[in-house]
Design brief:
Distance between the termini: 64 Å
Largest sheet: 7 strands, parallel
Order of helices and strands: EHEHEHEEHEHEEHHEH
Structural class: alpha/beta
Strand order of the largest sheet: 3-2-1-4-6-7-9
Helix content: 40-55%
CATH superfamily: NAD(P)-binding Rossmann-like Domain
Shape: globular
Number of helices: 8
CATH class: Alpha Beta
CATH architecture: 3-Layer(aba) Sandwich
Radius of gyration: 20 Å
Length: about 290
Amino acid sequence: MNNQTERDSMQKIWLITGISSGLGKALAEAVIQSGDIVVGTFRNSAQTEAFNAVHSRSNHFAVTMDITNSEEIRAVWHIIRAKYPQIDVLVNNAGVGFVGAIEEASMDEVRRVFEANVFGTLLLTQIALPTFRAQKSGHIVQISSHGGIKAFPGFGVYNASKFALEGFSEALAAELAPLGVKLSIIEPGPFRTNFAGASLLESAQILDDYAATAGAFRKRMKEVVHGNQEGDPQKAATAIVELVNTSAVTGSVPLRLPLGKTALATISAKIESVKNDLEAARTVAEGVVY
């Protein structure tokens, strides 16, 4: 496909990072099934080649990119833009998990998480924004987590990275609204993906004093049996595709989309906790102003 190739006016081009497994893979499959075009990224070049071999007769395309490598991100964007005249949907899915108490985490470990979940995602988003602004259309989909709303002992570094993602995304949504560009934050709970497997990082340091809190959480994550999680990644992918398609028709989109019963419970508990703290502090809060 090149700049001269016409495409169906209803066919969207999706750029999805991290499509090798989990929700990213399910979403890429759902987008292809819907009739839209997928441009996906893999960290492994062999996976990139395999994807392109399977889709050699279609407009789907994959590139190799490490979301923590800023030069690769810039180079890949130029490759994609040379091949495709327009990007309709950007899905920032690539990222990593991390378990460990706050004190247990080294600064190098923290930086590794933030490079993937915040800085790489922010950079790719910034690079894509001039295209969306020029088009006066487009949809940015940020894959966050219910852990981007509520923090858990043993998950604090990951929580912090997703809180950061949610923070800049919420501001960006408001900045883009007058320009015709939409943004959605997806907040899944536990899903049947490999999140708790090879893609989950953990602190090298383990301190006994945190055994009952962060240690217990680390233990639970290691005991997760893949396939037993409540969430179905195919159904989640379908929900995201429907969200994007519906917003393209209605012109409106919710800022946040929680996915799964656990996500609903977690986020509801956080809202209730904040509400209780607000009410408890009301007299003090009102008493510190002129």
